[in-house]
Design brief:
By secondary structure, the chain is an alpha/beta fold. Helix content is about 40%, strand content about 15%. The protein folds into two domains: about 210 residues, Rossmann fold; about 150 residues, Rossmann fold, CATH 3.40.50.2000.
Length: about 400
Amino acid sequence: MPETHASSACIAFTGGGTGGHIYPGLAVIEAMRAIGFAGRVIWIGSEKELDRKIVEAHGVEYFSIPSGKFRREISLRNVTDISRIISGYFRAKSILNDAKPSLLFSKGGYVSVPPCRAAAKLGIPIITHESDASPGLATRLNSAKASTILTSWEETAAYFSPQLRNKVLRSGNPVRPSLFDGDKARGLERLGFGADKPVLFVLGGSQGAREVNEIVLGALPLLVPHLQIVHQTGAANFDEISARIPNDELVRASYRPLPYLGAEIADIYAASDIVAGRAGASTLWEAASLGKPMVLIPLSGPGTRGDQVENAALAAKAGAAVVLQGSDCTPGSFAGAVKNALSPRNIKAAERACAALTKISSSALLDANHACAEDAAIPSAEFIARLVLKRLEVRAEEAR
């Protein structure tokens, strides 16, 4: 494929509400820039200040719109949110009219629906991506207007109507290329750990996860004789967790709770031998892309749509993870699963499974005008970046 793209081109991204609806999109932008795209990139997102800070920290222009949540249940908030959704649509339409992007890439979340509707009205092609095993409501709504529906999992295609399945393409879930630049020695030094014991990296998501935190605290006496633990607790839970660390010299030497992780996460991943935590798409695909075996504790029960349970089941089916859920998830079973996963035989098997899961065939990018030397396996972020830029070139040719 040609590595030069019109500097005057513009691509719009949309998504937000959680990191899972932002970081994969930023990974695509990072990969596009690495390939050589020098055009304008804008992001249409929510009015949450955290969303803005995350996106702008990556050098991307951010435009906020009013947004409302799509609730299936009866709620008075549905009435007020309808007006916000309508306002969001007109604001998004104005932004797109001014920026005139050649394409809109949607990463999902309820904030993405008004921009997708506005783009469809303006004749702007839409690519939408679903990270989870089953599509959320926003993806279902956006897919009707999309020219391409990207999925992380092959199994996700079955959730779409037969009329839409010809638009579905498995791309995997994009992971920030910078995560591959971590340094093990630097990570161990940051944590004050030695190289003589394996490292368990526990992730509870940006907000932390109380169930995961409790399991880890209970398992500490069973784990620290054998390995070192770095635990991202979530800022809201950090003080409580720190106060509850057992007053044991070995535990305190081998356990590092951290409230939040920024760019240093790449070094910590590099220093880690196994990853544990929830089964959100971002955590799962980051760990798998880095070849790290996983012990997953998916969020389940009332108030969830079961996406983490589905994600975890597919990761386990692929051989990349062990899943603990419900009554099966105790400090003892967690410690046992971690130690078992760290056996040399199981580590090798999980590494092979991770590699098979996360490498995407480039065959979908092949055509007469953009032939590759061979059908290679490439990371998801690069695959999607090349697909987006290919569509950009086609649209430019059609406009001539």
